[in-house]
Write a structure and sequence with these properties.
Length: 325
């Protein structure tokens, strides 16, 4: 029986020009390159200019994804932006992106699930595309996490960076099997009782300020390894695949130790794991599409490969997704 799948037909990414190394951070906070690399695997991150809002990064990533898909802005009928650092409280970054790329009147909105936002956004796009409500969707993860940093807190300010990644999602006919091109299955989770482990201490309805990111790193690490592994297992069941079937694992790029911990727990071949955390740091909702694009550009990930995505972020939210490119 034929079914309509939501397929990723184009991928693009963008990083701000400014690179901030660990040595640069050591000049403003009590840290060192050795300390940061040993605990996180991070060597550098990118930082947006003061006059470069999140929508600018999203636009560049979107344009590149459209080119990769052989589409133009005129084809777009759905824009979803996953971000926790919008240009303004409102309107949405998605509506600003629509204007800036010159897309026609369409559906456009943001999703806020912090680092899990891109996986959440893909699931929402799947709901539109697979049901015939959209024919050419842009799903974008775009963040300027450096805007949320307390630059006196060495436990958090060294972890994050700015960037954007985007995919084009279009309908493709399949047979309802794991061999189909497209999104195969999801597992999405949230545990609001763990809000105090990772949050920003500000907001329009509380302090009236943007606030700074706060994190209980050790506790987040413990929850991440266990919860992400469970979600991956559930997503594989929903996709009718085994972890061993996966060609490439593209995790949220939060911390090299978390990536390794999840991989070890699931018995994943480390040669199948895509990591960009060393060069990008944690770019929240942008990290998965950034890593996906990097691995496609360097030739590792190819059309037809079975790919597994996962992420965990504030909320606590987490989730996983399997798809065939």
């Amino acid at each position: 029986m034929s079914v309509i799948r939501s397929a990723v037909t184009g991928v693009g990414s963008f990083l701000p020009e400014q690179v901030v190394t660990n040595a640069d951070l050591a000049k403003i906070v009590d840290t060192s390159d050795e300390w940061i690399q040993e605990r996180t695997g991070i060597r550098q991150r990118h930082k947006a200019r003061d006059d470069q809002p999140t929508s600018d990064l999203a636009v560049e990533a979107a344009k590149r994804a459209l080119v990769d898909a052989g589409r133009t802005a005129a084809d777009v009928d759905l824009i979803i932006v996953a971000t926790t650092t919008p240009d303004m409280t409102f309107p949405s970054v998605a509506s600003i992106v629509q204007r800036k790329i010159g897309a026609p009147t369409c559906i456009a909105f943001d999703i806020q699930a912090v680092c899990s936002g891109f996986v959440y956004a893909l699931s929402v796009a799947d709901g539109f595309v697979a049901r015939g409500m959209a024919k050419c969707a842009l799903v974008i993860g775009a963040e300027e996490m450096t805007r949320l940093m307390d630059w006196t807190d060495r436990s958090t300010c060294v972890l994050f960076g700015d960037g954007a990644g985007a995919v084009v999602v279009e309908p493709r006919e399949g047979q309802g099997t794991k061999e189909d091109q497209g999104l195969l299955g999801f597992a999405l989770r949230c545990d609001g009782t763990k809000t105090d482990l990772l949050y920003v201490d500000g907001g329009p309805a509380t302090t009236g300020t943007v606030g700074h990111l706060r994190m209980a790193g050790n506790q987040v690490f413990r929850h991440a390894v266990v919860n992400i592994a469970e979600a991956i297992t559930a997503a594989c069941i929903a996709s009718n695949i085994e972890v061993a079937d996966v060609d490439w694992f593209v995790p949220h790029q939060a911390n090299q130790r978390i990536i390794k911990g999840v991989g070890d727990r699931l018995g994943l071949d480390e040669n199948k794991v895509i990591t960009t955390v060393a060069m990008h740091a944690n770019t929240s909702a942008a990290s998965i599409p950034l890593a996906l694009d990097a691995a496609i550009r360097d030739g590792r990930i190819k059309r037809g490969d079975l790919i597994l995505l996962e992420a965990m972020g504030g909320g606590l939210t987490w989730g996983a997704c399997a798809f065939r490119l």
